[in-house]
Amino acid sequence: MKHTAFFGDAEHTFALTDPMIAELERITDLGIGALYLRAVNMGFKLADLVEIIRLSLIGGGAYPEQAMQLTDTYGRNRPIAELYPLAMDILDARWGDDKDDNEADK
């Protein structure tokens, strides 16, 4: 349920844990299924992508302040084409696509 990717300055681990999903649902006022469908169908808000990345950084082990700094620096005022694939990889990892999971994580 984790995804590792380069974001901004280094490789980072992204994970939408249950508490981070609850916060994402609160922020977006959507259930995770509806948010996923909105993203897949290209009906997302830009803020959705940034929040998926920020909250999954926290779920992956970053301190909240570090996650905010990373998304403020590398997730805002960036091309959507940079953010969308990362956000979708993060959602797909939680949805159950284990292509990026290590053998030890299975």
Helicity level, as a percent range?
55-70%
Mean pLDDT: 91
Shape: globular
Widest sheet, order of strands: 1-2
Radius of gyration: 13 Å
What pattern of helices and strands is seen along the backbone?
Answer: EEHHHHH
- Give the CA-CA distance, first to last residue: 9 Å
Q: Count of helices? A: 5
Strand content: 5-15%
What is the topology?
Layout: E1 2-7, E2 10-15, H1 18-28, H2 32-40, H3 46-59, H4 64-74, H5 80-95
Antiparallel strand pairs: 1-2
Helix pairs in contact: 1-3, 3-4, 3-5
Your description of this structure?
With 106 residues, the protein is mainly alpha-helical. The chain is built from five helices and two strands. Strands 1-2 form a two-stranded antiparallel sheet. Strand 1 and strand 2 form a beta hairpin. Helix 1 (18-28) packs antiparallel against helix 3. The longest helix is centred in the C-terminal third of the chain and has 16 residues, at 80-95. The N and C termini lie close together (9 Å).
